[in-house]
Specification:
single chain, Aminoglycoside 3'-phosphotransferase, Chain: A, domain 2, Phosphorylase Kinase, domain 1, 2 domains
């Protein structure tokens, strides 16, 4: 799609100026990069180019704008992490511009890569290889340690179960019987560690190119147990037709309970204005994470 900066389906001229400062060239074609996240004026994402199609001199890029205080902070953190990391699992950074108002991060255009689902054995193996490379990568000095909250998410559900019950994931009787085991197991989850952890592995944050998985959206990176990345990914993988979590991460009752608590406690909350896609994704993951926790703890199916 081609558009001028004045068209309603293209960025404002001021943002195109920001793109130019970040990239070193001025885009003339614009396409919203919404994927499954949906459009968001608070964190605009675009595929931009300087021609209508491929050819001599054609350049393209993915650009994201931090348009609110929260998303601006995320954009700055992501750029800082990219500057501090090295690895084949990272996208190429093309530029950054921060005028103190709407920071712009420009990355390589990965729209031609393979974006799961569907999942194949090869794609699953590519992500596992990337996770192994991530855990082996020296983390930047500025990363903080993950603030594990033990069984706090399940305790929140116990204190006010109405938002969780509204999700329709289990009966009230099942929850009452399962909560003591879920809280205890989540409290025992091995979250602490010194490894680099992305902390948001799921299909819309990764793609596969030439047999290798590229992982994007590094604004939440922390120091933690590297199995946490695996545990976060597996419920969404199973929800999208992949293998059950225990086929890849067996005998992990604490992580299963903790991850299920994270998704189950969050999915019923009010939408996040800056990230409206989060609650639906949490619900999708909760639908497979809760049965995983039940199986791992020997509980009846929810």
């Amino acid at each position: 799609m081609s558009a001028s900066p004045q068209d309603s389906d293209s960025p404002p001229r001021d943002d195109v100026d920001r793109f130019e400062r970040a990239l070193g060239w001025r885009p003339t074609a614009f396409r919203p990069a919404t994927a499954e996240r949906g459009p968001s004026a608070t964190a605009a994402r675009w595929i931009v180019a300087d021609r209508d199609g491929p050819g001599v001199g054609h350049r393209s890029a993915f650009v994201k704008i931090g348009a609110t205080e929260l998303t601006a902070d995320w954009t700055r953190k992501e750029y800082r992490n990219y500057r501090s990391l090295r690895g084949w699992f990272l996208p190429e950074v093309l530029g950054f511009d921060d005028d103190g108002d709407r920071p712009v991060l420009a990355l390589e255009d990965l729209s031609a890569a393979d974006w799961p689902p569907p999942w194949t054995d090869e794609r699953v193996a590519a992500v596992l290889d990337a996770l192994a490379a991530i855990r082996a990568t020296p983390p930047p000095d500025h990363l903080v340690r993950h603030k594990g909250n033990g069984g706090a998410d399940w305790q929140v559900v116990a204190a006010d179960p109405a938002p969780f019950h509204a999700l329709g994931l289990c009966s009230p009787a099942w929850l009452d019987a399962a909560l003591p085991a879920l809280i205890a197991a989540a409290a025992s989850a091995p979250l602490a560690g010194e490894a680099l952890v992305h902390l948001d592995i799921r299909s819309d944050n990764l793609c596969v190119r030439d047999g290798r998985a590229i992982v994007i959206d590094w604004n939440h990176a922390v120091l933690a147990n590297p199995d946490l990345d695996m545990a976060f990914w597996l419920p969404s993988l199973h929800a999208e037709g992949g293998p059950p979590p225990e086929a890849i991460l067996p005998e992990a009752p604490g992580l299963a309970a903790w991850v299920a608590g994270f998704f189950c406690a969050g999915a019923g909350n009010a939408p996040i204005v800056e990230a409206p896609h989060v609650r639906p994704l949490q619900l999708k993951q909760a639908r497979t994470a809760l049965p995983w926790a039940a199986r791992a703890l020997g509980l009846p199916p929810p």
